Every structure is written in C-alpha cells, then in structure tokens.
Model the fold of this input.
Amino acid sequence: MPHCILEYSQNLEQEVPPADLLETVKEACVASNLFSVEDIKLRSSAYKSFITGGQEDAFIHVMIRLLSGRTKEEKKQLSDLVLNALTQFSLKDVSLSVELCDMDRDTYAKKVVLSQ
Done:
C-alpha cells in the first residue's frame, strides 16, 4: 500500500520519461514516512486525447489510493510532498494535481498468486 496511479498527457513524454515521473512519486511517498518502499505500487497511463480548460494543455494527475485510517494531516503532507516533487521537472504550461482516496480497510481484499 499505497497504489499510486499516474495519469498524464502523452505529449509530456517528449520532456520527461514516464519512469522518471513514477520514481519521483515513489521517492515522495517514501519521504512521507508513511510507507516502506516495498509496499508502494506505481503505474502510469498516458492519454493521447485530452482537453483541459477547453484546450489541449499538458497535465499530470496522481491518484494515491491508500487504506483508510491516516489523519488529514498525514494525507495533506503526502499530497504536498508528491506535488512539490513533480515541480522539480520545471515543466511549463502543465497542470499538476494530486488526489488521495481512502480505501475502506474493512472491505479491502488482496491475494498474491505466486507461480509454483
């Protein structure tokens, strides 16, 4: 835990490799001291069709899904760390956003299926 889902406009791939964006999000999650590096799951999805504010402007949106139970302060610190980390790329004309979503701890289910 957490699941970090990075959505971005495909045109940004010319400026920043997606792997670098994922690494930056991971480092910010580790810096929050809320998770161990082994528990962080990351994935990304590029959008080739997008409209922001009526224009085809670049964007990066990070959704972080985490088990419920953390304080508002902890979640705010995490979102600020991720947002500030994304600004290190000095991108221009881009919208950056971070959203934290609680997953109900009582109903979350997980099973890891390993090969034999």
